[in-house]
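A note from the maintainers: we've had questions about how concatenated examples are separated. There is no special marker in the raw files; a new sequence line simply starts the next protein. For clarity in this README we add a label.
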Amino acid sequence: MESGTRNVTGNLTQALAQQIASETTAIVGFNIVITDANGIVLGSGDMSRVGTLHEASLDVVRTRLPATHSAAEASALHGVKPGVTLPILLNGHLIGTVGITGSPAKVTRFGLLVERQTEILLHQASLLRTGLQHQRDLEDLVHEILAFDPEITEAVALLNQAREQAVDLTVSRVGIAVQINGRSSIPTITTELLPRALVLLRESFPHKHTIAVSIAANRYVVFAHPDGDGIPGIAQQARHCLEQFHAHLATDVEIGIGTEGVDPAGLRSSYEDAVDSLRLGRRLMHGFERVTTIDQVRIEQLLSSVSLRVRRRYATAVAAGLLTRGDWPTMRSTVVAWCESGFSLVGAARRLHVHRNTLIHRLEKIEELQGWSERSGQAYLALYLACKASEFEVDKSQAE
């Protein structure tokens, strides 16, 4: 047997051979027998023949040529009935034979059809196995990236591992965390040889350097190349992704987008930002925006990294004159709007939907309660963080 034959016989498993034999037997109306390269029957429409020797296959394997067997010829061979036996080739390697039981005059005309159909099915199975193996390799690579610690692992080792999979980790990518919500039925395998969700993710972020894998049930990691449009372009692709999932799978998706990163350390940091974006976006956007970039929640990211006790102590220390008042929510929203509008009376008033004079009155009241002698940007920024810390706790309790 050729060494090449040994390398590919794993594609012809007994389960696959039996499936092909059963389905083909039902289609052509004659019993189909599929053997390995040693002539052992792996699949047959007649299950009693599985595991037996089909002696006629041995010459077919040796010569790689079809052979017919009359009733007299078949009776002289072990485990053979009248019919035709043909070689099965996969990528130029002989991996077994397929036989059709019946009068040679009747079944020979089916020979080429059955042989070709069997080879097509085996080729598809081989592609599927190769595609799934490549996907598993990518998943392993991504897990290595997410666990990367430069103090433990040399970056060059991970770069070389990626290079073996034709992945260049020195290319700039943006980490994206994807959460699929609901219990919609997502087909596991499609003609693209990948789960449909992964197909949609790769179509939504179509650059050749995109990496997309599943890391848990309904959770996906994408490392997308930002091209020339940077993070805004990635965010636009993410919104298109939401539309695709809703249209094709009738399911909702939430997406968090990190920063641009290069090399294993940069990609890990980027994805950590993406996870924070997803988590904080879900908490703060109240479902109105399902795509969140890390720049939208940087302050909340900082606050969430500080312990609850420290946040509360800070808010109490900085905003003591306001926290106990019944109109604290109004005062808080006023401070936030004032600071986030760049200390613009027009911008803040528009954001709060109040008259400019109303805003001025509120600011004067805040400054009086705080005991400030003058309007200081630095003092307002400190108060702004206290307000955001308090706002963060309110949003957290609502989310829970």
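[label: protein 2]
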Amino acid sequence: MTLCTADTAPAATDATTAPARPTIVLVHGAFADASSWNGVVERLQRRGYTVIAPANPLRGLYNDSTYIASVLDSIKGPIVLVGHSYGGAVISSAAEGNARVTSLVYVSALMPDVGESGMSLSARFPSALATATKSVPYRAAGGVTGTDLYLKPDRLHQVFAADLPESTARLLAVTQRPAATTAFSEKAKAAAWKHIPSWFLVAKHDRTINPDQERYEARRAGSHTVEIDSSHVAMLAHPEAVTDLIVRAAMAPPPSR
């Protein structure tokens, strides 16, 4: 693993002055569910952290970030907010205006600026994802209609999870949760990473989000950055490395605002 910027843990303090440990909130991305964080959850819990991994609705950036913001409102004390893939776009908006979010952690993630979308970023940094998705119309109550994106089962292993066993990729293909196209087309209205310290894990073998896009986003935000040899699903393939980065973010002094 290549550490691009060094983090320094805060000096030890006695029990009477030590700040409260943050709650870690893990937000999954498109084509996944909260169970994608299981390996990270287990490791964080063993280190003594309270962890919440809510279900990201995957119905559009505005809908999803509003929902995750409401989850954050239910949590007492400081929060470290973590997003994988599309979940990065969600946390960038959901954390806006919440002073209890002390750190943002991006795992091979989207990190849009205001006015950007997943689609506009991928146009600048193309990846293999465009060849791996299929569109399926959906309808919901009240006459609502739209289009969902799924990963093609025969492309999921190569594009999404190349460093996992093929048997695991087949299971992911069957259990995937689709994302509405609005998840990627809606333009960000907030970019909380501009005023909340951020950490970024770049997956060097990512074919879902171009690693150069991840590096660009991290550099633009001034993120503490690590690069690892991983496919897009680093939290599944390399949960220890992802956990280590989250813990570094959790141990960092809270920002002054």
